[in-house]
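Section 5.1 Outputs to date
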Amino acid sequence: MTSNILNWYHRIGTVMAKKSTDHQTIETPMKACVVMTGNDKPNDAAVLSRLVILNFNKFLKREELQTVSEVAEHTDRFSKFLGLILQNYPTIRKTFFARLQSNQNYLSDQGFEGRTVNNWAIILAGLECVNNLLPGLSIWFENFEGFRSEICSAIRKEQSLHTEHNPIHEFFQSMEHYATQRFDPSSEPPGKYFTLDHRHFRIKEFEVVRDHTGAVIYQGPILAIHLKRVWNALQDIRASIASEISMSVLESHLMNSSYFLDKSVQMLLTKSMGAKKEGNVRCYILNIDELLSKGMMEELIEKAREYEKTRVQRLTF
C-alpha cells in the first residue's frame, strides 16, 4: 500500500492482473487526487508527507447535527458544479492560482514547510474558489480566517503526534477502537457489548489531583483506566498492541507521558456485564484536557460520558 500511495502522489497509475490465464492486465491512470478512509493511519514518514490527514469523530454534537441538513438545500447547485467550472475555467484557473499563492504564503508564515504547505494550500485555495462559484454559500466562508487557524492547529497536532511517536499513542488508538467499534466476541444479540466498556474505564468531569506534597497539580476532567483489565482484554482478543510491547513497558511510557496524573487511585467500576454493584479498584488517572489537545481518544471519552449518564439506571434496573 505504501508504494501505491507514493505513486499516486506523483500521478503514477496502477496496474493489476485480470482474473484470466492470458496474463492480461487492467491499467488505471492517475489524474486526480485519491480519497481514502480507514480505522488506522499509516506511520511511514514518506507516506505521511504526501497525505492530508483528517481525523473524523463519529459522535456529532447536537448543534452540529442541526447544520447537516443545510447541504441538502444546495444539491441542485452542486449538481451543476462541474459545468460552472468548465464555463468559467479561465477565470477559475486565475483565481485558484492566486488563492494558492496566498495560502502558500500564509502557511509558510505559520512555520510549515515542504509538502505540508503545498498539500494544504491546494485544499484551502479550492475551498475559496467554491465561494466564487456558488455565492449562495458565502455564509459558510464568513469566518474563513478562523477555519484556516483551526487547520493550522490540526496540522500541528498531527506533526506533534508523529514527532512524539511512542507506544502510548498506539495503545490509545487500540483502546478507542475496541471501546467504540469492536464488539466483544463472547457477547451475543440482543445484548452485544463492546470489548472495552465501563468495566475498564470511567470519566470524572471534575477531579482535584495533588502531588506527594499535597499541592494541587490539576483540576478538571479525568479519565480513569484499569490498565490490568484493559491489557487482559486486549490479550484475550489478540490485539496487535499486546504482542508488540509488554505491559511493564507500557506503564513506563504512560507514567512518563504528559497525559499521566496519578496511579493506584481508588475508583468504582463494575466487575462484569450486568453487575448491579461496583467495586473499588486501583486505576491510572489521565488528563482529559491533554488527551483532547492531542486529538487522542475523543470517541472513547464521549463513550465514557454516555456510560456515566446511564450509570444509575444500569446499576438499578
